[in-house]
Amino acid sequence: MTVAELVRVLLAAILASAAATKLAAGANGRSALRSYGIGNGRFRAALWASLIVAEIGLAVAVCSSVPLAAEAAAVLLALFALVLVIALARGRGGAPCGCLGPRSRISTAGAARTAALAVAFASLRWFPEVRPSTQTWLVAGLAVALGAIGILAVAVLALARETGELRITLAPQAALSLEHEGPQIGSRTALRERFSRGRTLALAVFTSPGCRLCEALEPAVRLVGSDPEVELEVFEEQRESELWRALRIPGSPYGVVVDPAGTVLAKGTFNTLLQLEGLLAAAERRVHGVAHA
Questions:
Q1: Helices (H), the chain
Q2: How many structural domains is the chain composed of?
Q3: Residue 236 sits in which domain range?
Q4: pLDDT digits (tens, 9 = 90+) for 68-99
């Protein structure tokens, strides 16, 4: 393979990849054409399909060394770059551009990248038709491999950062706990007698009839109750009004976690699954703290 053939295949692959991302984006990608003032839905769909067909056709033609295919691809990409520059001049920077799928945005870098690709396609005819030596290919392969390793390292670091941020986001959140509401933390209650299996943690959830939030959180409550270390009981306000008054439950949904001895480990109003899990996390910390003490 000559240098010109290698560059031709690489550029064709880039063009085909752009078409593939557009095809995979579907309606989300087509909507990016609104950034360029194209509001008619049918015309937008037809134009989007035409762009995909043109890019795939030119990629195949360039790869097959069809005469003037590289020049046609250069003209198309130059047109794309011009459209991006006009959009930037109109203050639409940051809007979806549809270049490489729904996540790509109109930017100076995007316009420069597209213009550089146009120049590369236009320059294909001047690439030398020579066959590098085996040693040259080995050096080039090593350079590509090292570059790929560098890109992979950056991707792994970015993934690690995203994972860290996700863990922070999904960490248990504290439920709303006020000193004068509910049973006192550390106090003994008869609540444990309402549970039958004596597991490490007993979670009492207090709900009210007609409480939409209670209904919405019912699957979350069942999920938490499926933990083998947790015993769950639900106390509805009308049926358990005396217990509500005895424990000074302020409203629903409300949770109280007790240990096997009936000691209150955590309490509070919860509005999300994360806050309910936060109650259990707070109870576990208290159990471990007492154990270490």
A1: 3-25, 27-30, 41-63, 69-89, 108-122, 134-169, 212-216, 218-225, 241-247, 273-292
A2: 2
A3: 190-292
A4: 888 999 999 999 999 889 988 888 888 888 88
